[in-house]
Design a protein that fits this description.
heterodimer, A: 222 residues, mainly alpha, 9 helices, B: 244 residues, alpha/beta, six-stranded mixed β-sheet
């Protein structure tokens, strides 16, 4: 079945290191996306016509453009056209943050506009000032709405990192391919075992995160 | 008696629509004023102007001698003097009942946590909700939520309570438990302005009735006169819509 190749040399360690690359790219991207997304989301909720148009176009681009095309554009395109020599991992983080920021911003905007006006009004009626209203009443509610959704975004990003091997990053899937290639003669059936293990690795990485999101969603539902 | 609230010639306009104009109302300490009127007559808007949730275009509102103006620096401390309870959904959903009650006294008035908690528990017991202190608003019925909202306003020690149709969104069987609380507050001498559609309750609780129609005060008076012997045709018509 091909599991034996995993025990050869440090193959299993290499796979785990590959998984670490995937996790690193997605976690860094999510962190950037949350910061930029919150800022953009707040700007979008202000309903300024210029910001609305720009953000609409941005969101639409992210929605339509396949991530792979974006990866190629940023990694290969910038090198040729602008002479910028980006590290592959930097390019990947840029693309994933570009995508994540759009999603986060949309979530933040939605959450902000979904807070009923009465929440602001009853808060200021109690004598809280604007800052206190946001700090104790509005922001905690937004965070509760957003955390499950942004955790969900992390799992989707981890899954999508399998694309980054196309720009030469050696992540878990690429390591798998290398192991299979190297053992083509000795264990021709290695593909099944190796990919099954990779499947399990993705599962182990994503499942707890997905459970956490479901748990928080349940705990905080209003 | 001491005047808590004085409304002088107040007008509210949205661009070319006048919601009400030349509103005059004086409320003395301990007085319960009930405002009734058809939907859209401006009574809720009027109540919201009293703690500057809505701005006014003309006239002035004095609350405990201070001018109510959303732009003024101490608007926070003026709003503390007017405890407001809304139609519904105004509890903070992410906080427990006790946290809902303690937020403003602790953060705004900087009162001692222990002392506020003790007061909150006493008030909760009074409205029959002591067992719900650690519940979240979503776990409460509509009537329970409104009782908590009343306590949340009370714990700020307001000079006046503004109740804006607080039973309008409730199931009929829950109206009573909320109105009983309001009635007991009236008996202990709280100053209140109440906007409501519950006519029997209005009669029971009011020291003075005010009827607003088309953006002006059409008739006012003591509840007996108001309900049994209305002077204006408009009020007669309005009261008839409540009897079959």
């Amino acid at each position: 079945m091909g599991f034996e190749v995993l025990l050869k040399g440090n193959n299993m360690v290499r796979l785990l290191a590959g998984l670490a690359v995937s996790l690193r790219i997605s976690l860094v991207s999510v962190a950037i996306s949350i910061v930029l997304g919150v800022i953009l989301g707040i700007l979008m909720a202000l309903k300024n016509p210029i910001i609305t148009v720009i953000s609409r176009v941005y969101l639409e681009i992210v929605r339509i453009m396949p991530q792979m095309v974006l990866l190629f554009l940023v990694y290969f395109g910038t090198t040729k056209a602008m002479g910028i020599n980006l590290e592959a991992e930097t390019a990947a983080v840029i693309v994933f943050s570009f995508w994540g920021t759009a999603e986060m911003a949309d979530l933040v905007r939605g959450a902000l506009l979904n807070i009923p006006a009465i929440q602001y009004e009853s808060s200021i009626s109690l004598g809280l000032n604007k800052l206190q209203t946001y700090r104790y009443v509005i922001v905690p509610q937004i965070i509760r709405r957003m955390i499950p959704l942004s955790i969900n975004l992390i799992t989707r990003m981890i899954k999508t990192t399998s694309l980054v091997m196309m720009i030469g990053i050696v992540e878990v899937l690429k390591v798998g391919q290398q192991i299979i290639e190297a053992n083509r003669k000795a264990s021709p059936g290695a593909a099944f075992g190796v990919f099954l293990i990779i499947f399990l690795l993705y599962f182990i990485a994503c499942w707890p995160i997905s459970m956490l999101s479901r748990y928080l969603e349940k705990r905080w539902e209003n | 008696m001491e005047e808590i609230l004085k409304v002088n010639n107040v007008c509210k306009r949205y661009e070319d629509i006048t919601v009400f104009e030349n509103m005059n109302l004086t409320v003395k300490k301990g007085e319960v004023v009930v405002i009734v009127g058809p939907s859209g007559c401006g009574k809720s808007t009027f109540l919201r102007c009293l703690n500057a949730l809505e701005d006014i275009q003309d006239g002035e509102i004095l609350l405990d001698g201070e001018k109510v103006d959303a732009a003024s620096k101490n608007i926070g401390s003026i709003r503390e003097k007017a405890g407001m309870v809304f139609q519904s959904y105004d509890l903070f959903p992410h906080l427990t009942v006790l946290q809902n009650l303690m937020l403003a006294p602790v953060k705004v008035k900087k009162r001692d946590k222990k002392e506020v908690e003790a007061e909150a528990l006493t008030l909760l017991e009074r409205v029959g909700l002591l067992t719900k202190k650690d519940s979240f608003p979503r776990q409460l019925s509509g009537g329970q939520k409104q009782r908590v909202a009343i306590v949340r306003a009370l714990i700020m020690h307001p000079e006046i309570l503004l109740l804006d149709e607080i039973t309008a969104a409730l199931d009929p069987e829950m109206v009573r438990e909320v109105l009983d609380v309001v009635l007991s507050l009236a008996k202990e001498g709280r100053t209140m302005i109440i906007v409501t559609h519950e006519m029997q309750f209005a009669r029971a609780v009011a020291d003075r009735m005010v009827f607003i129609d088309n953006g002006r005060i059409v008739e006012e008076g003591n509840p007996e006169e108001f309900f049994d012997n209305p002077k204006t045709d408009r009020l007669k018509q309005f009261l008839q819509t409540f009897s079959y």
